[in-house]
Design goal:
Length: about 200
């Protein structure tokens, strides 16, 4: 289960960057860090890459399912994260690439789950499970349409989102690789039998 260090590293990176963007206060240490204001844009590489602080009210791509669904989305994220942890334990002897993929997805899921569960309480704007996800990575890739909406930039995301995406891509690559290996394994006995028939003749 050493791959859980990958999940932990992702959660720490995700939460530290979100706190630096949103700001935080630690009264006991008399620390008050302001961070960025909502909607603020900081160019990093011109307009291609910039930090843009927004808070995602619900699901991916800024889709807001409404306050009645927010609790169910948060609970689903919680149980999905627990399920993935159990699954990671069950596949602890499987290939490293599969375990790394699941660890990346767990890290990303937990990173955003913390926002949904606790940020409303920490920042005094919503009860438990009703928090908003902090997004800030803003890239200008290409224009496209999705879910009936038109985007002139890639939807703003965070490191947790990126981690889930990377985990899914690794899973897809792992699936394709394992399929090609299975095909080769199935073809090998046929080739062996053919060569034995030629030798016997």
């Amino acid at each position: 289960m050493k791959v859980l260090f990958i999940s932990l590293s992702i959660v720490i990176l995700d939460q530290v960057t979100k706190l630096l963007v949103k700001g935080f206060t630690i009264p006991l240490l008399n620390i008050h860090y302001i961070g960025m204001f909502s909607g603020q844009k900081i160019p990093i590489i011109g307009d291609f890459f910039r930090l843009t602080f927004i808070e995602n009210p619900g699901m991916a791509f800024g889709f807001d399912p409404g306050s009645k669904m927010k609790l169910w989305i948060s609970l689903f994220s919680l149980f999905a994260s627990i399920g993935l942890l159990i699954y990671l334990y069950l596949i602890r002897k499987k290939s490293l690439s599969l375990r790394i993929a699941i660890a990346c997805i767990i890290g990303g899921a937990v990173g955003n789950l913390i926002d949904r569960m606790f940020y409303g309480v920490f920042y005094h704007y919503a009860p438990l499970f009703y928090g908003r996800v902090v997004d800030f990575l803003d890239f200008d890739f290409f224009k496209f349409n999705l879910f009936g909406r038109s985007f002139d930039r890639w939807p703003i995301f965070n490191f947790a989102d990126a981690s889930v995406t990377i985990g899914v891509l690794i899973l897809l690559f792992f699936y394709r690789s394992s399929n090609s290996e299975n095909q080769k394994a199935e073809e090998l006995p046929i080739e062996t039998n053919s060569s034995q028939e030629v030798e016997s003749k």
